[in-house]
Write a structure and sequence with these properties.
The chain has about 90 residues and is an all-alpha fold. Helices cover about 50% and strands about 0% of the residues. The longest helix has 24 residues, at about 30-50.
């Protein structure tokens, strides 16, 4: 008994055939890829539309001052206290 191997048979289809099958067939992976591509395009459009440039060029603060304003807690006034306890 001998086993004849066909060296010319390709167990995996070519990239072109796999891509054609991916485009034709209703696959979950294709749908997810399309939705992600659309979301990425919309997010990039929003970023470039609203967040790419500051509203006014002269309104800029040093990064240290911005960090101080964002990370500091507001000081409480000792004279205000709880008014309902009096």
């Amino acid at each position: 008994m001998t086993l004849a191997l066909n060296r010319h048979s390709n167990p995996r289809p070519s990239l072109r055939k796999r891509l054609a099958a991916w485009v034709r067939g209703p696959t979950l992976a294709r749908d997810i890829a399309i939705v992600l591509a659309i979301k990425f395009a919309l997010l990039m459009a929003l970023k470039y539309t609203f967040f790419n440039h500051p509203q006014a060029e002269h309104m800029s603060l040093p990064p240290e001052q911005v960090a101080q304003a964002l990370l500091s807690t507001p000081a409480t006034h000792p004279s205000q206290g709880d008014q309902h306890a009096r």
